[in-house]
User: Fold UPF0102 protein F5613_002731 from Macellibacteroides fermentans.
Amino acid sequence: MATHNITGKEGEAFARQYLEDKGYRILHCNWRYRHKELDIVASDGKELVVVEVKTRSDNYLVSPLESVDAAKIKCIVSAADVYARKFNVDLSIRFDIIAVVKYADGYRAEHIEDAFYAPLRK
Assistant:
């Protein structure tokens, strides 16, 4: 497996543990619908929380947050819509981003709650 893939998997595991330590209940990891994927689907007791995890090494050129563009948001929202229908979710949905950066001494996470909203349909 390529180094960036290993870093990504380790970053997702770090983000999962981070959320569990904050009291979130993890419902699914890497949930797929066709070619779309939700990295982490969790509940904080009040909302369904869809978390996009972006992991980078400390020498990254593009920040993890900048890599979540409009096209990526559209895919996440679309997959979350399918998820909510499939599992009969009766909670509001919040979209978070966890930016994980790998340093020589370990990982650090920045959790952005309500990082984006579902775009309005035209």
In short: The mean pLDDT is 89. DSSP finds two helices and five strands in the chain. Strands lie at 25-33, 36-43, 47-57, 92-103, 106-116.
